Amino acid sequence: MLNLLFITLRWTSILLSLSSDPAEDQFGQEVQWRKFSSKPFVLVIADRSASELAVQIGAVLHIQFNGVDQPAQEHLLVTNQNERLKVIPVAALPYVPGIFKWLFRKGFRSEAKTGVILDWDNRIARLCGYQEGKVRLVLKLPNSEEVFLADVNSPTTALSFIKAQFPSTTEPERIPQK
After folding, report:
1. Contact indicator for 71, 89 with CB cutoff of 8 Å
2. Is the pTM of this model over 0.90?
3. Is residue 49 a contact partner of residue 133, using CB atoms and an 8 Å limit?
4. CB neighbour list of residue 162: distance below 8 Å, 6 or more residues apart
């Protein structure tokens, strides 16, 4: 069942909060949000208990909209012209003690097939109303300050949410794989 929240957030207020302490991926690289402003993107926010489902959802969204199941690990640092929807995983990690962050970062480097934002203090998750144990999608369309939020429990509900907010993506062109 799709639990769609009709809460309108302003992306500029989220960016303002993130500007003082930018988000980083598992390699310690700062995420430049303005790089993604020209195309739609979706944050896939999950904690440890929802991580398997989040990985499945991310893979399905990549296949449906970009023709590949996972982008490269450095995809958070670049804008790919062929991407029709930038899928950005966010790991909510508020309970990791500071002395163990290096261990978690190392684990994400070796295990994650894609770039992942490590949300150590839960700032992104909190700004987007994330609840533990769920997968929250945050969709940002180009040329809009609004973001659309949904808690989803399957790849099917994730696709339904994206298609409902962004109907021009219902029949994406397939991008040939190299």
Report:
1. no
2. no
3. yes
4. 42, 61, 65, 85, 137, 139, 169
